[in-house]
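A further point concerns the way the authors explain their paired sequence and structure data. Nothing conveys this as quickly as seeing an actual entry. An entry of this sort, consisting of the sequence and the corresponding backbone structure tokens, reads as follows:
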Amino acid sequence: MTETDAIGSAAVDGAEGRTVAVLRTVAAARAALATAARPIGLVPTMGALHDGHLALLARARERNATVVMSLFVNPTQFAAGEDLASYPRDEARDLALAAAAGVDLVFAPSAAEMYPAGHATRIVVSGLSETLEGAVRGPAHFEGVATVVAKLLNVVAPQVAYFGQKDAQQALVIERMARDLDIPTAIEVVATVREPDGLALSSRNAYLDASQRAQAVGLWRALRAAAAAVDAGERSADAVEAAARDELRRHELDADYVAVADPQTLARRERVDGPTLVAIAARIGPARLIDNLIVSPDGAH
């Protein structure tokens, strides 16, 4: 890596001879992207990259002339007492993985760069932010998510931004925010990447010891139990939820929530008569994990 220059940029060697620019300031990112080939694809991350992030980067690489990855642990989406201080950070590893994935530019600002003194604007996406994660983590969580993503979209001005289905509520909030604010970026949601036993990949999986890791697969098995109930002909949302909770109990997991909801509005569903989101959050030792699955009477899940 070269020394950082006056506008906050450096470079690392990338895949197939690519040079991956590492930019620290809004001014540097905008200057670099002013002449970048279009289309531009953006993959926002908080680092601690895993195969789920790499799947997003691969999709972006396949479909865009320029691929940008942001690397920023966003403090405004963490509530007091959450894991901001302990969130896994290994920038050197993340930059090496980004380079190997063919990323052209990494935007890795400081908190002071993203939220300079006097920053006073937050984005509130009403209707989608108050339930599920918003109910547990507080309304400031999705305000922080929507605000930082809006800032990233304004800085990078990508044609497409990529997000994972594991964070289904987050993706809905971002889609609504971009649509309501007339931000001309398409939001593409990519399927969840899982371990062989079904556990959804998450940076927070690193918090788990071996025993907790064995427990954690209960989230996926609970979702599969909900799907199996639907496959067996069950249409009552209460019964589908109960099937998931029974499986969670078998893994000694106490869920923050098990939701059976409309996959676009997150409104509670009373019956599973079409594609339906089943979403789960549970605490396992030091980790809080989320997962979800779209279930459907036609067996498409």
The chain has two domains: 9-190, 203-294. The beta strands are 9-13, 19-23, 40-45, 66-71, 105-107, 160-164, 186-190, 255-261, 276-284, 287-295.
